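Supplementary Note 3. Input sequence used for the single-chain structure prediction.
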Amino acid sequence: MPTRAEIKTWRSLHRRKGRRETGCFLAEGRRLVGEMLEWPGRTVAVLHAGAAGAEPDVKKLLARAAARGVRTEAVPEAVVRTLADAATPQPILAIGEVPSYGWDDVGDGAIVLLDGVQDPGNVGTLVRTALALGVAAVIGVGETADPWGPKALRAAAGASFRGPVFRTDAREVVEHLAERGIPIWVAAAGAPPLRSPSPGPVALALGSEARGVSTSLRAAAARVVSVPLVRGVESLNVASAGAILLDRMQAGRPLG
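The predicted structure, written as discrete structure tokens, is reproduced below.
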């Protein structure tokens, strides 16, 4: 049984401060726990409501965790509810260490920059979409919601464990992309529509729906693009716009 101190610490993972201080995150539900047990990062513990341990799918997850030497604990359902962030929590969750991704982990290909995207659901959806479309990394900039927060992880549906997802600042982004010779394309409502694929790897910068991309990234941009829309429609949700632009940029390129 986890100690009260451990439960308090794990409960703090709902907040960015808690994740920053501990270096850990909390993932909820069968799918995310299953994905965590496949990734090369460290899973600290898998917890489950005591009665759920008899369910076939939960038993399989616990067996996989044990085979990897991961700590497993049966806890009262009330503890699961205390730790879970979802309104209707599933009976299993896991604590993992936030991976220390950085520029050395970024391979060849397009990059997605999330600049000030504050809704964690949009952040998670964009992580899922971008990695599914073969980008080399998803990088949070500025006040972007933490991609390792519980809501963002649920929206990413496990994609966060399949590629470099990390945060940095705009200055570092501009410097590293210039060194790699990768241009920045900024997505902005009212810009010329993107109608053909990019000629090579591009860093697509997506900003918040309220403020758009920051001045520093826009100043470094080689091009500003938008999604072609019918007359009378001003803009799309950032996750929808990002998905369409990425698909157009990557059109015709084989996925890994």
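Residues 120-132 form the longest helix (13 residues). The radius of gyration is 20 Å.
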